[in-house]
Structures are given as C-alpha cells and as structure tokens.
Amino acid sequence: MSNTDHKNYDQNEPLTSNTAPLTDSTITIRAIKSFPYRNVKNIILRDYDLKNKTAHDLFQDSLKHIQTEGAFRPFRTVKFDRMKIYTHAHGSKTVNLVINFTHDDDWVLDISESCSKKLCDYGIENETEISLYVESEYEEYKANPVEKW
C-alpha cells in the first residue's frame, strides 16, 4: 500500500458511540459471578433502545438472557441485585479487570421498578459496558480486593 492509499486517523470522524442512534445501540452487560476468581461473562445486547428503556428494563432483559441462554447456566443461581456502569465508550478503563471501584455514587443504576429514568439519562450510549453483580459480594471484595486463582 502506498502512502497515498494510506488513510491517517481523521480527527473529524465520528466516534462509534455517536454513530448509532440511541434507539439502536449495542451495549455489553458484564455478568459477574465471582469477584475474587474474576468469573465474568458478557451479554451483548444489540439494537437496544437506550432512549425508551429504563434500568429496570435492562436488568430484567439481562436476567432473562441468563435464564434462557445455555452458556449462562452456571450464572442462573446468582441472585443479581445491582447494575453499575463499568466504562463508557472511548473513556478510560479501570485497572481492575472485574469491576470499576470508582463512581459508586453516580454510575450505579436504579433498577427498581418505580424508577422511570431512561438509560440515556445515565449517560449510557452505544458501546457502554455495564456490570451486573451482587451488591454484598461487591462490598466484601471492595474492602479486600484479593484475587484468587
């Protein structure tokens, strides 16, 4: 390939998080079974409507996926009760491979049925990653983040 054929990165190209409409986004749900053993399995939700769906809808859709997909059989006994943004698209990533320890006050989603806040109101956009986990296990792991093999 010659230099004239090579296309350098264009600062004016849109980010992939901005190219998909909020009603047709792809997000990743990181179902966490075990923090110390880093047992995490991703659920990829394509064509997801961030403009009209609530955090409760996302929580229910994630649980339904776990209950119906064979690859998630080991996760079916986990009593998930919390969702939190792991990372935004094109944002900096955390050094912890399991969960983001920061932003406990503003990145946790209200998954209660009574909350009508839409996913886009949390700043969730195309290619955002969200952790699904058990809150008590997270608190225990955060107090003593020892990884086991």
Automatic annotation (TrEMBL):
Top-rank taxon: Eukaryota
Name the InterPro entries for this protein. Answer: UPF0538
Q: Name one Pfam family in it.
A: DUF2340
UniProt protein name = Aim29 protein
Q: Which family does it belong to?
A: Belongs to the UPF0538 family.
Q: Which PANTHER family match?
A: UPF0538 FAMILY MEMBER, UPF0538 PROTEIN C2ORF76
